[in-house]
Design goal:
single chain, 194 residues, alpha/beta, Lambda Exonuclease, Chain A, 6-stranded mixed sheet, 5 helices, 6 strands, globular, binds iron/sulfur cluster
Length: 194
């Protein structure tokens, strides 16, 4: 496998394919926006709160919590850091990924990201990850997300698509949801959409 993708590549690609393309093919032009900094800071604050939060907010009474778990798979060519992994909740032989988001809704790009965490954790821990949680920070609420075999296959297929566009340096189509372009940090490169 030529190079390693990150789970962030996948999230960006799902949000708009061009963002993943620009981030990979023009890595020096990407500014760090206030929105990005806000998201990073919110995630770090949430980890501190999570240390105090009880497992019962996820519906469990027992389980081992591991925060900020760094993951890498040579087989998948993928690296990531998951906010929280809950091992063997309530004595079950599973692992549950948790991702904190500064959002009020669970977008498809968040689900794909969670599916990648599941694949990486399954390989690392040797346990199945049949579901996970997106923790919506503004609502202070975890949303349970099923991580079925089709969801994981979709995540793998998306990673393959990203590899193809980066390898051929072919700019993909813009997102059909043009409202996303309004506050996009790459809008100056997308004269055809605005
Ligand atoms: S401006 Fe729109 S099409 Fe261009 S990268 Fe941003 S979201 Fe995608």
């Amino acid at each position: 496998m030529a190079w390693t993708l990150t789970v962030t590549d996948l999230k960006q690609y799902t949000y708009c394919p061009r963002i993943a393309y620009f981030a990979r093919c023009l890595p020096d032009v990407r500014p760090v926006t206030a929105k990005m900094e806000e998201g990073i800071a919110a995630g770090q604050e949430e980890e501190t709160r999570e240390q105090r939060r009880q497992l019962r907010s996820y519906g469990f009474t027992t389980g081992d919590r591991h925060f900020g778990v760094s993951l890498y798979s040579a087989a998948l060519g993928l690296t990531a850091q998951v906010d929280l992994a809950i091992l063997r909740p309530d004595g079950t032989e599973i692992v549950v990924p948790v991702d904190y988001k500064l959002s009020r809704t669970v977008g498809e790009h968040f689900k794909l990201q969670l599916a990648c965490y599941a694949l990486l954790l399954e390989e690392e821990m040797g346990l199945p990850a049949p579901y996970g949680f997106i923790y919506l920070i503004p609502l202070r609420r975890p949303e349970r997300v099923p991580l079925s075999a089709p969801a994981k296959r979709k995540a793998l297929a998306t990673l393959a698509e990203i590899r193809t566009i980066v390898a051929i340096e072919g700019m993909p189509a813009a997102t059909a949801r043009r409202a996303r372009c309004i506050d996009c940090e790459f809008r100056r490169f997308c004269n055809d959409v605005l």
